[in-house]
Each structure stands twice: as structure tokens, then as C-alpha cells.
Sequence to fold (411 residues):
Amino acid sequence: MSDLLTRVDQTPVDELPVLIDEVVERAASLPRITSVPLLTQLIQRIKDDESLLQRCLEKLTPHASTFEEQVSQVRETLATKLEAEQAYLEAARVLQGLSLESGQRQISDDYKLRTYIRIVRCLLEEDEAVDADTYLSRATALMHTQAGKEDPELQLHFKLSQARVLDAKRKFQEASQRYIELADNDLVAPEEQLKCIEAAIACAVLAPAGKQRSRTLRTLFRDARHARTNPVSAKVLEKMHLQRLITQADVSEFEQTLRPQQSALVPDAAGSMTTLLARAVTEHNIIALSHVYENILLSRLPQLLGVPHAERIVREMIVAGRLRAVIDQVDGVLFLLDQSDAADDGAEDEELTAEAGTTMLQADSGVVEDNAATKLATTNARRPAEAFDTRVTTIIQAVEQLSTDLRLVMT
Fold:
């Protein structure tokens, strides 16, 4: 035994692989009172060499039930080395092999929590959102522990992991809210706060149009720090909040600021593939038009919005409750109602409404040529009209009556 301990300290590095095999083999046949100190000394000797740690882990794994604590020590040390080399996926796989539900040794909830968050952070660095979500759920269940309640840094890492997982799962509205919370955290450095603001803007832009997104856009726009972010992000945020039309040039510029998973292709209303950003911008432009016009010819919608299946997108938004409108298929007209229930009231401040009505069509000439041309293409600019209100009311009543008749027939 003493001979082995001496050799562990004195063996040249190039001979250590053979020594590892010998020490592990001998340790398996020795009493724990002697084998544990021997393995601990061996691990201490090879802690700075990734290949030797890999070899040691490979040899110890078959004896994990006997040397569970030593195997965990090797895994943690190896994971630290891999993280330093930015091999995050390998580090996550090594940490995932840790036995955290062992009956042989007592493992605190704090240790489990820190390990789960560490695994989540490594997986997110490699965009492994599905696996990260699994371990984040485990971490969430342990946030009631002392560390979860009292360690501000651990709480910060948890909230950042939450935001990134929601972002990766395309729950952009919730992700944007988490990024905003992080940007307001005093523990986050000012330059990191700006990154959180940029991430929040990206997620808010990609979120489905509606009341919640309008509130988020208002919060971000009223935060003075948004002016210090990427100029493209700040411009798109301003246009969305002021209900201005967003041009294809804006889309192309903003797309360059997105991460790969945020630029993924998704099916559109017609079943063809489009980007998340293009879909979000189309929905925004529809709502932007609703703040200027009461009705628009359906045949004109594709040209105004720059998409061939604009009517289908409008139908989806109406069904989802994100756009208050009525489609008259007979006359081929889209009637746009008051959007105060579909969008947040705060987005319709007097100063913004005036600017949206007078500037939007002029500033975004790439989408709508000019006011005169647009008024010719559409039926009427937004103004009070008793006939219009009466017609819309009649259509709504007819739909309600039809629904009642159908229910009676079915019963």
C-alpha cells in the first residue's frame, strides 16, 4: 500500500496511464479504509490532465457502487476542465452521469440544485433546449432549499437559465419578461443588462401580436437603456411600439441580430415555410394597418403586407382573438374594428396615435406607396361612419343567430 502511494506521487506523467489501471484494480480488492485514500491521492495527482481523468473515470465506472464518491469527484473535476475548454456538451454529459439519488451517501438538496443548474447552463451553450428543460424542471423543484432562497448568484443563474430555455422553446413572450427582470437586477453588470435588454427586444418582436406583447413593447420602449442597444433592435422596437409598418429592409437587418434558433423556419398560414420573424412582422403590420383603416379590400392585402396568403393570416389572428375584425367574403372587404381589446391600451397614447396616423404610411413607403395611392386601393380611411357600424353589427348578429340555430338543430 505504501509503495503504491509513493508511486502515485513519483511516477512520470507518461507512465501514469498504466499506474491508473493498476491502482484502480488494486483498490477494488483492498478494504475501503485503504483504497479510498489511495484513489483520492491518485485523483489529486491527475486533476490537471483531461486525458488521465477520462481514463480514470473509464476504469472506475464499473466499480461506481463501491467508489461512488470518488467517481463523483472525477466527474466534477473533468467537467470543470471541459467547461474551461468550452466543450460544454461533453461537460454536461459527464455531469449527467453523477449519481444524485444514491442511497449509499447523503446528498444535500443544495448540491443537487447547483449541479442541475450547472448542467442546464452547459446544455444551453450547445442549444440543447430539450435536455436543458428536463434539468431545469428538476432545479425548479429544489428552489425552496436554503441555497435557492438565500444565494443571490444561484438565483440569478436560475433565472437566466429559465429565460434561455423559454427562448429556445419559442415561448418568446415569457422569455422576454424574464430577460427584463434580469436587466433590472442590480447584481447583473451594466453591460450584461444591455445584453438582456437586447434579448428581451428580440423575444418581444418574435412573440405573437396581442395585448401581452404590446405591454412588453411599451415597457422596453420606456426603458431609456433601449437606445444604447443595437441600433437595428432599437429601430424595430420603436416601430412596433408606435404601430408603424415594418419594411422588408427592416426585417433583413433585424434578422442578422437573431440567434440561429430564432431564425428557424416554421409553417405559415398556407402551409409553406417562413421564418419566425417574417410571421411576427406580418401580424404586426396587420394590426398597424388597423390603427389607420376601417376597411381594406382583401385583394389589396397581399400587396400591402408583402405576403401572398395575407387573408389566411388575418383569419388565424381573428380566431385566436389577437385581431378584432370581420371578413366580408361577398364584397371582398376586411372590416377592422377597434383594437383596444386586442392590443394594450398603453400602446395607444395620444402622442403615439397621432404619429402613427400621420407618419406611418409616409415613413414606410417601401410597404405602402403613399397616402393617396393607399386610399384608392382601400375603401375608406379611418373615420366615423354610421353605415359602416350598422353593417358590421348586422354581420355579427347574423353570425350569432346562425350559431344559435346550429345549437338548436344539434340538440
